[in-house]
Design brief:
Number of strands of chain A: 21
Largest sheet of chain A: 8 strands, antiparallel
Strand content of chain A: 15-25%
Largest interface: A-B, 90 and 90 residues
Number of helices of chain A: 19
Radius of gyration of chain A: 23 Å
Shape of chain A: globular
Oligomer: homodimer
Helix content of chain A: 25-40%
Structural class of chain A: alpha+beta
Amino acid sequence: MGANISESIPHSVWWGWGDPARATPLSPEILTLLRERFHYNADAILSPPVALEDVVLGEGALDAESEELLRGIVGAPYISAARLDRVVHAGGKNTPDLLRRRGGDARDAPDAVVYPGSAAEVLAVLALCSERRIAVVPFGGGTSVVGGVEPLRDRFTHLITLDLSRLNRLLSVDPVSRTATFEAGIRGPAIEAALAAHNFTLGHLPQSHQEASLGGYAATRSAGQASTGYGSSDELITGLRVQTPRGELRLGGRAPASAAGPDLRELFLGSEGVLGVITEVTVRISPRVTAKSYGAWAFSSFEAGAEALRRLAQDAPAGDIPEVCRLSDAEETELNLAMSGSSSVRTLRRYLAARGLTHPALALFVWEGSDGRTRSRRRRISRLLRRAGGVWVTAGPAQAWDRGRFGAPYLRDELLGRGVFVETLETAALWSNLAATHAAVSGAIRAALVEGDAPCAIQGHISHLYPEGASLYFTFIAAAESDPFAQYARVKAAASEAIVAAGATISHHHAVGLEHAPYLEAEIGALGVRALAGVKAVLDPEGILNPRKLLG
Amino acid sequence: MGANISESIPHSVWWGWGDPARATPLSPEILTLLRERFHYNADAILSPPVALEDVVLGEGALDAESEELLRGIVGAPYISAARLDRVVHAGGKNTPDLLRRRGGDARDAPDAVVYPGSAAEVLAVLALCSERRIAVVPFGGGTSVVGGVEPLRDRFTHLITLDLSRLNRLLSVDPVSRTATFEAGIRGPAIEAALAAHNFTLGHLPQSHQEASLGGYAATRSAGQASTGYGSSDELITGLRVQTPRGELRLGGRAPASAAGPDLRELFLGSEGVLGVITEVTVRISPRVTAKSYGAWAFSSFEAGAEALRRLAQDAPAGDIPEVCRLSDAEETELNLAMSGSSSVRTLRRYLAARGLTHPALALFVWEGSDGRTRSRRRRISRLLRRAGGVWVTAGPAQAWDRGRFGAPYLRDELLGRGVFVETLETAALWSNLAATHAAVSGAIRAALVEGDAPCAIQGHISHLYPEGASLYFTFIAAAESDPFAQYARVKAAASEAIVAAGATISHHHAVGLEHAPYLEAEIGALGVRALAGVKAVLDPEGILNPRKLLG
């Protein structure tokens, strides 16, 4: 049945991902691959994280009066300027974030971390900070990979991070309407555990599931690995409660649809903490999953596979479409096969080659539900995929993906320590523009990642289908240069410019944060950015909320 | 196959609905019903519309310089202060609108009507009017029933109506991504005719289809009669081009989903002309309909039928759900049966009574598509409905509904002339709150509509299903009082207050306009209204766009 989605893990270690006790070490196959194919010197840990006490923190500290006032709102145990608290909240989880902290740099850390226990406390903290001009960075799971939780002071002397982890309760379930309301700080596994007790699931399972929070999903328009089936967070979220320096907003949740003016819920979905702090979220829920069916098909190329997925998304009966649909390009397929180390891989390669698939693109599907229909749904989609040129592999690769679905971020920690640079980025495009966008972005990453023909890998996959297009996700691997931050900036700029030039979106599900802010104007225009600033001027006139994020 | 959805009719007559040549006179059955059951004196036309030359117009006129400058932008033929143009644009199509114009009152008429021929002309008109402080009312099909196109001057001396009917072209079709881009003034039948040439349909068919425009759908979050299948306008629309006094916005359309900040498209969907003028709309399109299946089932009560629809919306395979799902309450069912005049009605009543359904609630369904699946989809849903207590009737009532689906507004014109007051209003609620909302709103209308136990009818139906709830639509009929405007205001206030008190939405698909503006704050809060005003301050700092609508 795949990974246990209700199993909670500790809040993430400060220098990397999740709970290091759960990481599996690099397999012999991966080490061989790194050595033989990429010629990386990856056999030993070269650069482990520094010790916590060696991390350099900034000098920033709240003045005593502000600290006292904040303590009065949340209570003494819930404001901290302790080293670990400040380091944990010094940034998010992209590769530069991790390299910085592993290397002992937390100079940007907040003056203090405040842990409110209720929406009313959040409201009071924001009013106080607005009055005293203290910058506030809202913090859910802290898993941003676009700089969304970096404590940037901008023009402010003082900055606190507002950690919402105490807002972690299920508030109500409406089993008739199939909705549930949670406090926003609840994390993925706790959401699923709470709903499982009522025989429901949210079904929102991003790779960050084990750490990320529901409020973070809302604030970033997160998409989960099964969003093709359940819908992405903006489709799942029906209501929001938001605190701002100027008061509270309660949006949506009263009806399944409304024509009562613009949808303000859609203004706070993706607002990334710059317009307010989301404290409650109402979501659509589905019957708990009791059955899964799996399948993998190979295609002659990424383009052929993408065309098959388009037919699936547009022509299959809506109820038959798999909850999880993924298609790796030939390079990702090749690396996944090489890494799997399974003895059956050689057999599979021969089997596919005999069918003309020498550089196959592998597609994985998972059907899940609460009834006996997953097998018949798979049967009907099998016919469609076969007609579209798909060659049946087995259920195995999809089952293996499901078991290991939350493991990839641990792999990165292992690689970073061995001098291997690995990062991801993503976009989405219309079907008519998908192959061109895939080629343009892959090409831009390749051209920027390494000098000359140094060994590197640029992998791409589709993981979310829509009637009019799909997501594109890229993973790139290279030997870390002496300045990996410059290497990252170079690749990120090249890829972002290629995405804009291709007419695709700067982010399908990672959001804008700091890193995509320069590209927002290309997407919504200077006037669109000004319209958002007009909203911010009403709700946060002092500009204390998450400075420099989203709007730049 | 139902009504011809590509057949264009002339722009609507000024005193009523559509093309009077297409209206069918009241049937003998309806006249009998009005006479015998309601004791209305409805046999003769008592109050026909006044002659056009007798309509009283306001004195407002543009100053010569403004008129000359506008003429310079759009060209001499495309600005008019002619009587008919001014009267046609003096308001929308709700009952007070029609009563006012039929009675010869167009004192609110705009100074002039401007017909721009391009987005650039719209932009230039808005810049000019902002500079010269001339109010601008955007006008698509003019079918608002909430006062959305009333030419209210507020603090402005001059007002023009901006009629977008010349912006009526299909600009592009992307058959691979299944999207199409239109100019916003194109009306329903022309949309379908243009798409039919490419073997596609939009599938958005509100009752106003024959008159309403695509830009109007977007500006009001319109839902169509088949929105359960195709999605409402906010789900169908993927991109917008909007002109404002401060410049142009191009939103969405580049990707099937995006996490690049708040979704500004959702800010202009439902913006009702107060934030900008929508000049282009990109929509999802579907394969042209080549097959339909119909069915009607009876339930023992509205509550039993609603419960069956909930199971359908939540538990049926998504691809099996009918494109059109409607459930009339017992009173609407009774009146529809009485009005149908079919000889088989008596047989049907006996058949249902024999099964214990003495006050049946009738549900109609239409499955439509481009393949052979409509019959098998119906078969599977039949089983679900039967298990939920539904008694199969025939396909007939659904077929009859489909043939006459655009006819109801003509019926109102006939009734108004005979002293019969008829109007509609609507909301949406969660399933857990649906029956209570239906009862509360029906009761409020009944209590406010007539004195004592004077004969009247309050009918309700569900016409749009969602996983977490459904729409509720009410039609009410009474003898017109001597002051029908006061009668309308009384009913409208009572119903709106009941909707707010029930925790439902003030509008599922009629929008806010003038009439629901007092209730918007109950829905999004005072701070939400201020946030929208913050956007307006950026885009329309002089406040010329559609004064007093939406934000009050």
